[in-house]
Amino acid sequence: MANVNYYKNKIKNLTLTEGLIVINVIMFLITQLVDLISGNGLLMLGAKVNELIGLGEYWRLFTAMFLHANIMHLIFNMMALYILGRDIERFFGKPKFLLIYFVSGLVGAGASFLLVSGVSVGASGAIFGLMGANLFLYKTNPLVYKRLYGSDLLILIGINLVLGFITPNIDMAGHIGGLISGFVIASAVGLNFEKIWVKKRIIYQALVILLLVVPIAVGTIKIQSNEGLFVSGAYYYYTEGKIDRSLDIIEKGLKKYPNQTDLLYMKSVLDKK
């Protein structure tokens, strides 16, 4: 019984940073299990796939930040989250920490959706958001910041940006989007116990909304300008056994491209089923 109570207390006293790490590790294990069963765990669990997001699966912008491509990807991201997250959680408080983390992750995913065509996963956008919040701390009081951290965290941010540019297959749009949004969100909410709804923060709050909405809206318009999206999307949902969803995609495609022959043919076939 003593051991049970010990572990209950440990779970109860987890920081949000540690809780996020646990969730990411659990999701990685689930991904591996799904891979063993079906071979496409990342796709099934919500990787950022531009075509599917363009067809309405916007939830992938959120779920992608809990998925990792391999064990090293997970380890490096969780180490960065542990190093950065505890202090951001302490300086900003738990609600503001979560706001910085998740909104930065969404902005990073939105930037990736707009600018990067490939599939991507990972908590990097959210973690770069924590780096952006660190830059806000430096801007707020550079002397105190330097006494606490020296230049170590600023050097860490710089190294990560340089490595991102020189390393292949790194989603730099997501990283930079997260970094910028982390700074802006921190400016929009202020430190722990500071009021959010004050006049000096209004511009930053409006900018957060723009950073969140504009890339996703422009990315959607951009990807839907290709009529082939609706053809491939309808076929994908058909092969997944989602006939109603396939028909819905066909109808949406025909509204934009009423004479698209492949969509018309697929509609005629599916209407008979």
Describe the structure in your own words.
The chain is globular. With 273 residues, the chain is mostly helical. The protein folds into two domains: 2-46 and 57-224, Rhomboid-like fold (Up-down Bundle), CATH 1.20.1540; 228-271, no CATH class. It is 77% helix and 0% strand. The model has no long low-confidence stretch (mean pLDDT 90). The protein is built from 15 helices and no strands. The protein has helices spanning 2-12, 16-38, 41-45, 50-54, 60-63, 71-92, 94-115, 124-140, 142-149, 152-166, 172-189, 202-224, 228-239, 243-256, 261-271. The N and C termini lie far apart (59 Å).
Short account of what is shown:
This protein has 15 helices and no strands. It has helices spanning 2-12, 16-38, 41-45, 50-54, 60-63, 71-92, 94-115, 124-140, 142-149, 152-166, 172-189, 202-224, 228-239, 243-256, 261-271. Helix 2 runs antiparallel to helix 6, helix 7 packs parallel to helix 12 and helix 8 (124-140) crosses helix 9.
Features:
273 residues, mainly alpha, Rhomboid-like fold, 2 domains, 15 helices, 77% helix, globular
N- to C-terminal separation? 59 Å
Question: Multimeric state of these chains?
Answer: single chain
In total, the number of strands is 0
CATH topology call of the largest domain: Rhomboid-like fold
How large a portion of the residues is in β-strands, by DSSP E? Answer: under 5%
For the biggest sheet, the summary is: none
Radius of gyration of CA atoms, rounded to a whole number: 21 Å
Counting helices, strands and paired strands, the structural category is mainly alpha
Average pLDDT for all residues: 90
Q: Which architecture name of the largest domain does CATH use?
A: Up-down Bundle
Helicity range of the residues? over 70%
User: Number of helix segments?
Assistant: 15
Looking at this structure, what is the CATH superfamily of the largest domain?
Answer: Rhomboid-like
